[in-house]
Amino acid sequence: MAKKKSAAVKIWYNKDAKMAALKRRTVGVIGYGSQGHAHALNLRDSGVKVIVANRANSDNGRLAKKHGFTPMKVEDVVRKADLILMCVPDEVAPGLYAAKVAPHLRPGQALGFTHGFNIHFRTIDPPKDVDVIMVAPKGPGHLVRREFESGNGVPVLVAVEQDASGKALPLALAWARGIGGTKAGALQTTFKDETETDLFGEQSILCGGVAALIHATFETLTDAGYPPELAYYECCHELKLIVDLIYQGGINYMRYSVSNTATYGDLTRGPRVVDAHVRAELKKILKEVQSAQFARQWRAEYEGGMKNYRRMLADQADHPIEAVGQKLRAMMPWIKAKVIRKK
């Protein structure tokens, strides 16, 4: 089967995005978590009027107060805002939208999303008289905020799903510029492509694949009798060093930077790790994303109380690599190690 030819992606920068599209408009940020706090603070610092919806007595609500916002009810934010940013978790958003957002929407407003999941899979179905746009940063919210404060930006994906006003794209680009995204580049996409590539990347390599490979390589060494401390350094700690090289200059630069021995092992053994069986599984995972099978499974898990999710998470948290890793990271104060406390 011939490979599909990818079309050239349009990229916008500061010169293409005018903040005037947000002039005299109020942006309402629903949820003050990872993405929510970054978008709210960056937009405010860019001269935009921002209001925030979050439970006042929660950790995020208290953080919003510390940052100078007055947490409001979702319904009140929807009534007062012109652009409403949905910055709550994918699994929470549909219920919140149906109960507290949809009843208070009015024609001419705009709904903004930082991920396309609920629009693409139709768990949220906005009315036809509002704009539906997306600005999806290619990084967590804390990085979006940190890069903005340093005068830089994180690349973003921009999409327009519904252009009721005829001005949805300039609005999305203003939002992207307001959080610093057009400094690094705002790439044109669709809700469908952003959602499917994002889910596939998370499951196949960024989270699922890398975590499974770390565990498997660690277990291979420890099962063979090697000290777990050595296994941790080789199979987990040094991963950052390699990723940083790839991040800076691509795979070619990584191979240029490591030893010839490492590169030869990479070239000859890597294809044995990611073999035909793995590639077949990757295609299955992509089809599960594209067909909405994963989305349905995740919705069912959430609506069923997330029992399997919590059980699997607890099992993974007890993996031997976590204990040895915590001990070794404590010996390196310069990395500012984080510890997740069990509840």
Strand content: 5-15%
* SSE succession: EEHEHHEHEHEHEHHEHHHHHHHHH
Mean pLDDT: 96
Described by the principal axes of the CA atoms, the overall outline is: globular
The percent of residues in helical segments reads 40-55%
Main β-sheet, spatial strand arrangement: 1-8-7-6-5-4-2-3
Helix tally equals 17
Poorly predicted runs of 5 or more residues = none
How many beta strands in the DSSP annotation? 8
Structural class: alpha/beta
Tell me about this structure.
This protein has helices spanning 34-45, 59-66, 74-80, 93-101, 117-120, 141-149, 168-178, 181-184, 191-206, 208-223, 228-237, 239-257, 260-273, 276-290, 293-303, 307-317, 320-329, and strands at 11-12, 26-30, 49-53, 83-86, 110-113, 131-137, 156-162, 186-188. Helix 9 (191-206) runs parallel beside helix 10 (208-223), helix 10 packs antiparallel against helix 11 and helix 11 packs across helix 17 (320-329). It has an 8-stranded mixed β-sheet, sandwiched between helices. The chain contains 17 helices and 8 strands.
